[in-house]
Amino acid sequence: MENALSVGDGIYQIQVPITDNPLGHTLVYALESPGGLVLVDAGWHDDNAWNGLTSGLAAIGHSVADVEGVVLTHFHPDHSGLCGRVRDASGAWIAMHEADHDQFAQMSADRDADWMNAERQNMARAGADQAEQDAFVTAMGEEVHVGRDSAPDRLLADDESIALTGRSLRVVHTPGHTPGHVCFHLADADVMFTGDHVLQKTTPHVGNFVYPLEERDALAQFLDSLRRVQSMNVTRGLGAHGLPIDDVAGRAAGLIDHHEERLEHLHDNFGDDQITVWQVAERMKWYKPWAELSPMGKHMALSEAAAHLRHLVARDLVAPVPGPEPARFARK
Ligand SMILES: [Zn+2]
Ligand SMILES: [Zn+2]
User: Fold this and answer.
1) Ligand 2 centroid vs 197 CA: distance in angstroms?
2) Which domains does the chain have, with CATH numbers?
3) Is 191's pLDDT higher than 90?
4) What value does the mean pLDDT of the chain take?
5) What is the DSSP letter of 245?
6) How far is the CA of 76 from the centre of ligand 1 (A)?
7) Which of 6, 27, 189, 258 is deepest in the core (most CB within 10 A)?
8) Residue 236 and residue 184: Cα distance in Å, rounded?
9) Is the peptide bond before 204 cis (omega within 30 degrees of 0)?
C-alpha cells in the first residue's frame, strides 16, 4: 500500500509506523530543494519503521541517500528514533533545538538500578503506592530505547533560519510538549510543520515529570507557545500525527480553551480536600477510567496532572500543604 503522498509545494508526507502504539504512525515530511531532501522528523526506531520510511521515499522517487538533513521537532522516540540510521545511510546532518538535546541524552542513557530507584522515589513523592511503583518499573524495563549514537550534531536556536538550497525553514521555538519543541515555518509555501505542538485532533501531552512540584511550568510554556503560533500569519499546519490543519490559529485557540477547562475542572474537584499529585491525577478525566489505564498510561496521566497542578500553583489558586511526604495540595 502506498504510504506517501504529495501535499504540494515540493512537500511529501510519509507515514512511518509506530509499533504497538495507538497513534499508529508518525508523519514524516520530506521537503524537496535543489540541494536534496530535508526530512522533518524521522520516525520510530525499528525495522518496521525503517521499511515504512524507505518505501515512502521510493514512492516519491527518492532514496534515503538523497537526504541532506533531518530537522527534529523534538526528542521523542517516535520523531527522533530513526535519525541516526538515516545519517548512517546518507551522511545527512541532524538538527534539534538545544533545549531538547539533554533530554535526548537522558532518554538514551541506560536505565540501571539507580535510575529505577530514583524513579521510584519520584513516584513515592507524588503519592504512588508500592504496587503502582512496581508496575511502572516493570513496564519501563520492557521498553526499548534509542541508541546514543544517533545524537543530533546541529543545535537550533529560536528564530534561526535554516538555509536549504533555494528554500529556508524558520525555527519557531514552542516549548511545552517538550522543553525544546520547535515548529518549522516554510514561508514560501505558507506552511508550518507543527510536530506535536498543534495536532489536528489529538491533544498533545504536556507533563511535568519531577514530583511533587517541578520548577518548570510546562503548561504555562505550552499555552504561551500556542499563543505565539496563534499570532503568526500561517494558514496551514502539517502535524506529526493526524490530518493537516486548515486553520492553525483556530486549532491553537481550541487547545488553549481545552486546557483552561481542564484547569477549572481540576480546581473544582479539589473541594476542601488535601490531596497528593497521584490523587489529582485520579480525579481528572482521561480517555478511559483511571483504573483501566496501563502503568505507562498512568505515568503519562500523572505527569499531565502535575503540569496542571503546577500551573494552578503558579496562578495562586492552589498551594502545597506543609507536612511529611508525599506532598499534599489544597485550594487557596
Ligand atoms: Zn511528542
Ligand atoms: Zn509524536
Assistant:
1) 9
2) 4-110+153-267 (3.60.15.10)
3) yes
4) 93
5) B
6) 5
7) 27
8) 12
9) no
Q: Which of 302, 317, 318, 265 is nearest to 135 (CA)?
A: 302
Q: How far apart are CA 107 and CA 110, in angstroms?
A: 8
Lowest mean pLDDT segment, chosen from 104-108, 212-216, 280-284: 104-108
Cβ proximity of 299 and 290 under 8 Å: no
Nearest of 79, 326, 296 to residue 213 by alpha carbon: 326
Q: Is the pLDDT of residue 208 over 90?
A: yes
Ligand 1 midpoint to CA 80 (Å): 10
Distance (Å, whole) CA 188 – CA 97: 22
Does the pLDDT value for residue 139 go beyond 60? yes
Query: Chain-centre distance of CA 242, in angstroms?
Result: 14
Backbone φ, ψ for residue 194 (5° rounding): -100, 0
Instruction: Return the amino acid letter for 210.
Output: V
Interval 73-82 mean pLDDT: 93
**Res. 112 pLDDT band, cuts 50 70 90:** confident
Ligand nearest, relative to CA of residue 21: 2
Tell me how far apart the alpha carbons of residues 306 and 304 are, in angstroms, rounded to a whole number.
5
Q: Which three cell numbers stand for residue 97?
A: 533545538
